[in-house]
Specification:
Helix 5 runs antiparallel to helix 6, helix 6 packs across helix 9 and helix 7 packs antiparallel against helix 8. A hairpin with a 2-residue loop joins strand 2 and strand 3. This protein is elongated. Helix content is about 35%, strand content about 15%. The protein has eleven helices and 13 strands.
Length: about 325
């Protein structure tokens, strides 16, 4: 005898078992192999293709006093995390401090004190705001990782950029969050990191590149600079730039080895140089080791840029 087919309206993510009837699931169907028990009273269709938010939504639907926090909230917001936190897929749930700590399988429970606006709804999930999530994570990350996380929150690009972006929060909002919680764990590190959070870094590797150059004593490059063509139209968007020396830095991630991306990179470099700039292409390996190669690459390019500028002044250009 064939099984009763599953209802077509099954959520593409987690859901409370108490919602089974409204979803058209019988108690027998709820116990089928195709539905996984994540935790007490919480289910997930085995072949769910939902987003991180959809997979975690059931946790906050199950308990309206809880919100997702720390690494779980960071993943939904799309924030940069340290390597250690990226490898930790436990669920982080928080309740207000006057209530008891959440306790569930594979859940890290937290008791937190929230101020107005620090808990929000996003894609049907209750979670800590980007600025509050950043501050909660500060005590378990290094200064450089806190800076990268901050960069990933404040990054934005205007409409003339190939990939326009809106910031999750502003630098001023991060500063206000630090000021609002003076005694919180990690607040000292967060305060130090704020001095180096910048708008314009699209990846933690771009932040790492900038910090390596600063640690080596090189000047800080400008982010979000646009190189215009002869007709005054935006033409090239360097990941970072030295304006006086006319040096454009481009971080080439692992996907830049793909044939089509490689061809685009070559065309971009040719255009950059035709417009009077030198392009320095930085690869993943250039950021590694005690003496990262990116420092030598940029130092050489800056020296050449300064020599060219000095010669141009001598002959009256």
């Amino acid at each position: 005898m064939s099984r009763t087919p599953m209802p077509p309206q099954l959520p593409n993510g987690s859901f409370p078992a108490s919602a089974a009837k409204s979803l058209g699931l019988s108690p027998k169907q709820l116990r089928r192999e195709g539905i996984v028990t994540l935790s007490r009273g919480l289910r997930l269709p085995l072949h769910s293709t939902g987003t991180v938010a959809e997979h975690l939504r059931g946790y906050t639907e199950l308990d309206p006093e809880c919100c997702l926090s720390h690494g779980s909230a960071a993943r939904i917001h799309g924030m940069s995390l340290s390597k250690e936190l990226e490898a930790d897929w436990r669920i982080h749930l928080a309740r207000a401090s006057e209530n008891w700590k959440p306790r569930r399988r594979n859940v890290v429970g937290h008791q937190l004190t929230f101020k107005p606006g620090e808990v929000m709804m996003l894609d049907g999930v209750r979670l800590t705001s980007p600025a509050r999530t950043w501050l909660d994570l500060a005590h378990v990350m290094s200064i450089d990782d806190i800076i990268a996380a901050g960069d990933s929150i404040v990054v934005e690009h205007g409409e003339n950029h190939p990939r326009p972006r809106q910031a999750l929060a502003t630098v001023d909002e991060l500063k206000a969050m630090v000021k609002a919680h003076p005694g919180m764990r990690g607040v000292r590190k967060a305060r130090l990191a704020l001095d180096l959070v910048r708008v314009g870094a699209d990846s933690p590797q771009e932040t790492q590149m900038r910090l390596i150059l600063l640690h080596a004593g090189l000047p800080e490059p400008t982010l979000n600079h646009v190189i215009f063509n002869e007709w005054g139209a935006p033409a090239v968007w360097p990941d970072a730039a030295y304006l006086t020396e006319r040096v454009a830095l481009q971080y080439d991630g692992r996907h830049h080895g793909e044939a089509e991306q490689y061809r685009r990179d070559i065309r971009r470099q040719a255009l950059t140089e035709r417009l009077g700039w030198r392009e320095v292409r930085v690869h993943h390996d250039d950021l590694l080791g005690p003496r990262p190669e990116v420092v030598a690459k940029v130092r050489r390019a800056l020296w050449v840029g300064r020599e060219l500028a000095a010669n141009a002044r001598k002959i009256g250009f």
